[in-house]
Amino acid sequence: MNHKKKYIALDKFIHQALYNSNTGFYMCKDPFGSKGDFLTAPNISILFSEMIAVWIIAFWQKLKCPKKINLVELGSGNGEMILHMLSSFEKFQLFKKSCKIFLLEKSLFLRKIQKKKLKKFKVKWIKNLNEIKTGPIIFLANEFFDALPIKQFFKINNEWLERYVDITDKKNPKFVNKKTNIKKFEKKIGIKLSKNQRIIEFSPLAMKLIKQISKKLINKNGGLLIVDYGYLNNLMMDSLQAVKNHKKVNILKNYGSSDITHKINFNLIENISKYLNLKSQGITTQRNFLLKLGILERAEIISKNLPFSKKANIYFRLKRLIDKNKMGELFKVMLITNNKIKFQIGF
Questions:
Q1: Which CATH architecture has domain 7-283?
Q2: Sign of the Cα pseudo-torsion (144, 146, 150, 153, in order)
Q3: Which residues neighbour 197 within 8 Å (Cβ) at sequence distance 6 or greater?
Q4: Per-block average pLDDT, block size 10, for the chain (347 residues)?
Q5: Would you list the domain boundaries of the chain?
Q6: If we measure between CA atoms, which residue out of 262, 229, 257, 228 comes closest to residue 245?
Q7: Helix axis angle, 266-275 relative to 204-220, nearest 10°?
Q8: Roughly how many angstroms between the first and final C-alpha of the chain, as a whole number?
Q9: Dihedrals φ, ψ of 139, to 5°?
């Protein structure tokens, strides 16, 4: 009998769980919305997408209204956000004429949903950022980076260990930690991750993407707007979790049927962007960002002549977006650009 143990690095395990073309969580179903496994801001209120649309137009104006601009949404989920944004852009004809929309979507299943939803609009689906050849680019990442696979490292008794999954018994996977050479890993990626840390969470895939984006922002101009679940501490933490039917579940026992995510360490993203010669224009909470863009005023305008029940519904949804105990503080917003731009709207 062969008792050889089989180990797989955590990031590869997560990648298989989420993106395996036959069984991956994002590849076979629509997990978004109240009937799905979790809610994202665009599914909670149309106001969120409207505010992002307003911000994008302001940023385009900051770039001196280029005749051609590309808007790239990274991972568009069920297409809800870009759908509402496109409706908002109808009110800004000059921008609408200048703007080309691209969606970078890995899941063929979600792409079908997006295509159905967006059939009235001119949208192009891409597999790779290099498909965009000209013009400045605005990248939009709403709850995108938290769904990318991560590696985890733990410092125990002054030694660094990397987390793997033991899949020898496929029905009963287990976490195992294996010794690793962290200096070698840091040299490979070009960033010192381990200084003053006890835990490291790092996504090689996020790094690769931000590298590609950085080249575009430096050569062609534009920005990357990140809205995500995360924290600002210098100390990293073990934030890995799985969610199914709006509840936290065991990562190993719900392989392929749950969403595996982590909290973004925004300080780390800032360090990566500095290393790539980019500049963070600011990091703020979702609450501050939306309030500064005028979400309350917008809610007032649209609810003015509505009956009480509809008005209440608008404000109930708005509360989820900006309440300090809901998404308001949990979610952060960050803008990354090249060093020439100064843009503070929303921050």
A1: 3-Layer(aba) Sandwich (3.40)
A2: positive
A3: 155, 235, 236
A4: 79 92 83 77 92 97 96 94 96 96 93 94 94 94 95 97 93 94 95 95 96 95 97 95 90 89 96 95 96 94 90 92 92 97 95
A5: 7-283
A6: 257
A7: 50
A8: 61
A9: -100, 140
